[in-house]
Amino acid sequence: MAGRSINKNRPGFAAAAVIALMSACSAGQVQRSDLVAGPVLAPAPQLQSPLAEQMRQDPGQRLVMMERMRRQILHRTRDIPADRYLAQVRPDLKRQLTMMGFDAHDADVILTDVDRAR
């Protein structure tokens, strides 16, 4: 097994990052005022996540990941007041989902399902 590489399929790692941020937001530990604003020198480069490549190659895997993320987000955000969820948490979740590799449409579908279930 000397030539074997580490498993590149790590959707759980990306999901854990989203869950950690949602937990911090729901606990009130992260506020928009906590973010430090500085001059923007250049646009941030678009990073290709392994999850994005995996979802492009396998549409079935994309649907599984969408459902998994929907359940996790719903579970973590159910106790957040609606006004705070809509104003702060939901926009951050959409940004994080797109950074994870979901396209904007998929992120909207996930969050719309969460909105309906809340």
Characterize the structure shown.
This protein is mainly α. The chain has a domain at 49-118. It is built from five helices and no strands. It has helices spanning 11-26, 50-57, 59-77, 82-100, 104-117. Helix 3 crosses helix 5 (104-117) and helix 4 packs antiparallel against helix 5. It is globular and about 40 Å long. The model is unreliable at 1-7 and 34-45 (pLDDT under 50).
Q: How would you summarize what this structure contains?
A:
The protein is mainly α and 118 residues long.
Averaged pLDDT, please?
Answer: 75
The shape, in one word, is: globular
Helix content: 55-70%
User: Strand percentage, roughly?
Assistant: under 5%
The radius of gyration is 16 Å
Uncertain runs: 1-7, 34-45
For the terminal residues, how far apart are their CA atoms?
A: 47 Å
Secondary structure tally, helices: 5
Secondary-structure-derived class: mainly alpha
Order of helices and strands: HHHHH
Keyphrases for this structure?
globular, 118 residues, single chain
Secondary structure topology:
Elements: H1 11-26, H2 50-57, H3 59-77, H4 82-100, H5 104-117
